[in-house]
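By convention, each integer encodes one residue's backbone shape. The lines below illustrate.
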Amino acid sequence: MASLPLPAALRAPFEGRTWRAVGYVLTGLPLSVAYFCLAVTLVSAGAGLLVTFLGVPVLAGTLALCRGFGAVERARARGMLGLDVRAPEPVRGRTGGALSWMGATLKSGVSWRHLLYALLHLPWAVFSFAVTVALWCWGWTLFTYPLWQWAFPMYAGQAGLQLYGDETHSFYLDTPFEIGVTSAVGLVFVLVGPWILRGLVAVDRLMVAGLLGPSRLASRVTELESDRGVVVDTAAADLRRIERDLHDGAQARLVSLAMDLGLAKEKLAEDPRAAAAMVDEAHGEVKLALQELRDLARGIHPAVLTDRGLDAALSAVAARCTVPVSVDVDLPARPAAAIEGIAYFTVSELLQNVSKHAKARRAAVDVWRTDGRLMLQVRDDGVGGADVAAGRGLAGLTERLDAVDGVLAVDSPAGGPTTVTAELPWRP
């Protein structure tokens, strides 16, 4: 029979997470004292020297030093609190010279936030250090009192731990009941201490993430650059797919058709019947080539989507699925053409997955708008087990949606059913 796990309240004092937090608080105070003293001293010196040119490099060097403090704090938070804060972009001057670097450093909001951290963290570090040491020392001291109470009568010449004493009265914790109550009070401190400690380091986490990380604007620029790369790669992949389909499909068929018509032209005079048969065969090839071109055009952007919107376009996709599919589109208006196209191809890809992998008997597509977002949901009663990390199809869809601030959520337990929900910005 498997043993029952201990409740979280009993595990907390012994977990590595708790002791790492203790180490974070204890090492934080001396570091904060050093940061504060250096920052205040150098900023004061730089401000005093601003009447000369020397103040500018001193202030710029101080801000650079504070960014070094931030690197140390991010490493501490990563190692002891499990908080991974991305380092901000380094300061770069426009011309690459020393003056340009100093100007960029002084204009950098990130650098000033690092200085603010060096100034603000000291009072918080003093408070959290005092609370942590008091809770930890008193808690474990009182909790283990029955183990070391014998030291008082043997070495200190008193009955036990003195709770109160003056010239006429004194009270010692020496009876079994008093020793037990003392240990119980210590146990309360031991059990409560980790949760108070986690609340304290939560403030540290907020300060590190808010003051020592990249700015929101920089993070957004990085995200947009990544999304742009995804869009470019996706567009290049689509162009390669179209070129491949044209080369291996319609183009090859048209080349063969031209050769057949050339042979039919040569045979027209000497063997009209054979020439007629070849022309008839070429006619069939023309129909197949036209169908392939229509399919290719539909894959680029279907005309029915442009003319009639998502309802008609998704109904056409559902009709080509190998299982019965119900389509319910409830939209007050049409979104932006780009969003409409992404929604169409997302549902098309998901229904292809249903046809190829789901082994389903039926599927359903729902499209609606809520809170300025376009919502898509594709459900099937198949075998389940779909995973974004396991297949290129869902991973590619996730990247496409990320590029436009969209989200793809997959709920597909083994044995089914599967529900894939996509969320896109509306952008009318």
Summary: The first strand starts at residue 161 and ends at 165.
